[in-house]
Amino acid sequence: LSSLSLLALSFSFEKAMCERKLFIFSGGTAFNSMASKLKQVTRRVSYCMPVTDSGGSTAEIIRVLGGPAIGDVRSRLLRLSDASTPDMVAVYRLLHHRLAHDSSEARKEWNDIVEGSSALWSGISEACKHMIRSFLVHFQVQVLHASSNPYSYQSGQHSFDFANGSIGNFFFTGARLFFNSLPSAIAMWTYISQVPSDTAVLPVVNCNRRYTIAGILSDGTEILGQNEISHPGDKVDKDSAGGAEAAFASKTRLKSIHYINEYKQRIEPELNPDIPAHLTACECVVYAMGSLFTSIIPCLIVPGMGDLIAQLDCPKVLLLNGYEDRETQGFTAEDFVMAIVDACSSSCSVTGSKRARKDPLVLDFVTQIYVASGTKIKVDSSRLETLGLKIEVVPSALDKRGRVTFDEEALLGRLALL
Hints:
Elements lengths: L2 H16 L3 E4 L6 H7 L6 E5 L6 H10 L5 H10 L5 H10 L7 H13 L10 H23 L18 H13 L2 H11 L7 E4 L8 E6 L4 E3 L1 H5 L12 H7 L4 E7 L5 E2 L7 H6 L3 E4 L4 H9 L4 H6 L5 E4 L13 H14 L21 E5 L8 H6 L3 E5 L1 E3 L5 E3 L1 H9 L2
Parallel strand pairs: 1-2, 1-8, 2-3, 8-9, 9-10, 10-11
Antiparallel strand pairs: 4-5, 4-6, 6-7, 12-13
């Protein structure tokens, strides 16, 4: 193509994207790279994120301090931050940093950061350093208080392990605890880091408490905790360890996901009140690639979400994974679709909804599927077309582990042409 043709194509692409408001359901990892590129062509995006992660440093924060899991939210906010200045590049480096795997080394490294003497502060302006450090200090104070309080939950078991801890998670937890509000912490960072005003990162539930998910397998076995569902064997709560590895080894499929409280009883959390306005104003719904049962479905099963999606008259696009993971072993493309349909149907109200019946229409919740060429997921095109679904094959690429995924530039182009 000539330079003039490329310029015209770029203009048409950006014009198409800027006219469309997207509402994207995703976790904090698989869509992160796309989010960074998507903000270059459209700022009218709302990301709906789960708050049920139970692995890594998030698990340690929840164990000692409680509250919602903020790992996915933190990850997306950092990706959306303005990195055009040396100051913000240095801030991103600090908040993206993880401490040493050895507990004693991690604690020493953490103390250097809190005291302001770490080399990680290099390049960060004094004003920004003071703001970030204040919330890190507040986090440290809360950790010390929980560790020394004889009346706190699980008294005597609250010594915090900083190993492999995320500085970003510590910062956002400190901000959440200071404001006593996760949305307020998000708003503060959105303003400071110059996340575009038309871009929103929305936790699916507006909460200041812990939420946990459990999975039900097709044989009735229940698995407790997000990390035990997706990464059994990692550092997780001891109460849930062990069952998932054996269950998945038996090739038993995941059937559904539900929320539980600290007593392992089923609960129905309240939908974030900011979501309806963002969702009803969107012109395209996207179910991003990633962990189906631990990233996407926890957002869809919150009461009221299904009603909102069903009432929309716009494209509702599933970005199909290019490979199987632990959660979707043996799944076909139709299985992915029906898992989403079932989850959305479960969150529809019993009365007053056009979805208040036992035979939900697939097209109420999914209208199109984008498939990466060469995907390892079985796609029965004729069967999907009988359900009324449109199938779009998108050029693919290989990720760092050699797995099939979408070519990001091609995917951006297809989203623009919806």
